[in-house]
Specification:
- This protein has 503 residues and is an alpha/beta fold.
- The protein has 3 domains: 5-276, Alpha-Beta Barrel (TIM Barrel), CATH 3.20.20; 293-379, Recoverin, domain 1, CATH 1.10.238; 389-502, Alpha-isopropylmalate synthase LeuA, regulatory domain (Double Stranded RNA Binding Domain, 2-Layer Sandwich).
- The protein is 41% helix and 21% strand.
- It is built from 17 helices and 16 strands.
- It has helices at residues 24-37, 51-63, 77-87, 103-110, 114-129, 147-160, 176-189, 209-218, 240-249, 251-254, 265-276, 297-305, 333-342, 349-365, 371-379, 426-438, 482-502; strands spanning 5-8, 41-45, 68-74, 93-100, 135-140, 164-166, 197-201, 223-226, 293-294, 324-325, 389-399, 402-412, 415-423, 443-451, 460-468, 471-479.
- The strands form 4 sheets. Strands 1-2-3-4-5-6-7-8 form an 8-stranded parallel β-barrel, surrounded by 7 helices. Strands 11-12-13 form a 3-stranded antiparallel beta sheet, covered by helices on one side. A 3-stranded antiparallel beta sheet has the order 14-15-16.
- The site of 3-methyl-2-oxobutanoic acid has 10 residues, from strand 5.
- This is 2-isopropylmalate synthase.
Length: 503
């Protein structure tokens, strides 16, 4: 199966997205991750735009080895000189030059006749060719251009040395069928286009960027330009992760592959989010928080029985550990019982029935139902677990210039036993001191803290999960003092573990 080339323009068109500017170090980090992801081409920037852009493109050219590194340039000698200076150190450099070809752009923006635009395009491709073998030529606003005019300009720039022809939907105006026919018409009228790569670059103004890219691929495009998380000018560009996973998931009809290591997708998306601070919407395909989450009872039941009922790809295939069952007002009994099992509870049928009714009432009132809420509901129904260990007293000492220490005393079988420890903060120190006393040999699997009431006097609820021999013991602790809440949660988990081991 043939691979379609993935041209990533996160660092160029993506950066044109408001709020997505990146500094040189962030761009290098992102470029290295794109290399691990396996993209074929990195468009590293628009070298003439600023000194910073030039330095970033140049640094990326020096820091990645497998992908081609491209810089954008207008059809102007000074832009091409600058682009070449920036990419010339790359193992595989590319100059990407463009000029607009639509009547609107030529008349109002460039103030040039079509003949002048052809002349500039040809001259600048020849000019760039003196520097670099690999030249991409883009006809900006191609989809609002006359296809026969495009065929003429493409034939001439290919003869002048262009090795890739890009036919962008700059303003996200076309539709899949129209784009398919448009590309077919251009191919029929550009004899030399068959010798080189045909690229597409779609914007998402009508939400059709990915669909249009896929239609173009079916019409013979061999390179797709896209960005991580779909960032880019205005409504963004075609999202890399969506294109790649569509190709991957629908190999049966699309009959193409990519060189992308899909397991790196999530990491790449999160790196970009961390760098830019721009979150992806929760329902965003592939990389959104909810892309592999199931909230409603019928779906949760289906997925618990057989994941493929509601999952067309696995979360693991994009680098996520697992899917997510979100408990809320739409959830049903199957998911509720499954969560109880995960939390280590085994209830009788009647207890489950009562707990489920209470859970539904709570879910109607509360946006998020946490594990702690479920435990609060069921803990009163399960067999009472004796408090083998109880907190007698604790003292912690911490600050930003000293090592945190904790001294904890527990009551055990009517005796007080104490120990001390240092740690990474007062809570870590306290947990270590407790472990010295109880010696469970369990590992701390998870810890979280949230407020359970509102206002200045909010109570903090700590959840501690201890793991031993594949069993999870979840402890809860509530206090207005977060250290105390955490210590109580740890002791609660220890008591559950001890109870289990003794029975
Ligand atoms: C579709 C796209 O995404 S195109 C890429 C868009 N990205 C960017 O513009 C980001 C970086 N841009 C910049 O930093 C600046 O716009 C620069 C450095 C490129 C140019 O800045 P300035 O010289 O101040 O020009 P300004 O941006 O105001 O106007 C653009 C000029 O380029 C011309 N131009 C636009 N596209 C092209 C082209 N492909 N080839 C030749 N000239 C072009 C315009 O006609 C205009 O020319 P004029 O100054 O003679 O009127
Ligand atoms: C420069 C070109 C490829 C572009 O970004 C566009 O047309 O959208
Ligand atoms: Mg663009």
């Amino acid at each position: 199966m043939k691979n379609i080339k993935i041209f990533d323009t996160t660092l160029r068109d993506g950066e044109q997205s408001p709020g997505c500017s990146m500094n040189i170090y962030e761009k290098i980090e992102m470029a290295k991750q794109l290399e691990r992801l396996g993209v074929d081409i990195i468009e590293a920037g628009f070298a003439i735009a600023s000194k910073g852009d030039f330095k970033s493109v140049n640094a990326i050219a020096k820091n990645v080895s497998t992908p081609i590194v491209a810089s954008l340039a207008r059809a102007l000698p000074k832009d091409i000189d600058c682009a070449w200076e920036a990419v010339k150190d790359a193992k595989r450099p590319r100059i990407h030059t463009f000029i607009a070809t639509s009547p609107i752009h030529m008349k109002y923006k460039l103030k040039k006749t079509p003949e002048e635009v052809i002349e500039d395009a040809v001259n600048m491709v020849k000019y760039a060719k003196k520097y670099c073998e690999d030249i991409e030529f883009s006809a900006e606003d191609a989809t609002r251009s006359n296809p026969l005019f495009l065929a003429e300009i493409f034939e001439k720039v290919i003869k002048a040395g262009a090795t890739v022809i890009n036919i962008p939907d700059t303003v996200g105006y076309t539709t899949p069928d129209e784009y398919y026919n448009f590309l077919t018409r251009i191919k029929e009228n550009t004899p030399s286009i068959h010798k080189i790569d045909i690229s597409v670059h779609c914007h998402n103004d009508l939400g059709l960027a990915v669909a249009n890219s896929i239609a173009a691929m079916r019409a013979g495009a061999t390179q797709i330009e896209c960005t991580v998380n779909g960032i880019g000018e205005r409504a963004g560009n075609a999202a890399l992760e969506e294109i790649v996973m569509a190709i991957n998931t629908r190999k049966d009809i699309l009959k193409y592959g990519t060189g992308i290591n899909t397991k790196e997708i999530m990491k790449t998306s999160r790196l970009l989010t961390n760098i830019t601070g721009v979150e992806v919407q929760p329902n965003k395909a592939i990389v959104g928080e909810n892309a592999f989450a199931h909230e409603s009872g019928i779906h949760q039941h289906g997925v618990l029985e057989e994941r493929s009922t509601y999952e067309i790809m696995t979360p693991e295939s994009v680098g996520l550990n697992t899917n997510k069952m979100v408990l809320g007002k739409h959830s049903g009994r199957h998911a509720f019982i499954d969560r109880l099992k995960t939390l280590g509870y085994e209830l009788s049928d009647n207890e489950v029935k009562e707990a489920f009714e209470e859970f539904k009432k709570l879910a109607d009132k509360k946006k998020n139902v946490y594990d702690g809420d479920i435990e609060a509901i069921v803990s009163k129904r399960v067999t009472h677990i004796p408090n083998v260990y109880e907190l007698h007293k604790f003292v912690t000492n911490s600050g930003n210039t000293i090592t945190s220490t904790a001294s904890v005393t527990l009551n055990f079988e009517d005796k007080n036993i104490g120990d001390i420890s240092d740690g990474d903060g007062p809570i870590d120190a306290a947990f270590k001191a407790i472990e010295k006393i109880v010696n469970t040999k369990a590992t701390l699997e998870d810890y979280n803290l949230h407020s359970v009431t509102e206002g200045k006097d909010a109570q903090g609820e700590a959840i501690v999960k201890l793991k031993k021999n594949e069993n999870i013991f979840t402890g809860r602790g509530i206090s207005t003092d977060v250290v105390e809440a955490s210590i109580k949660a740890y002791i609660n988990a220890v008591n559950k573990l001890v109870y289990e081991e003794r029975n």
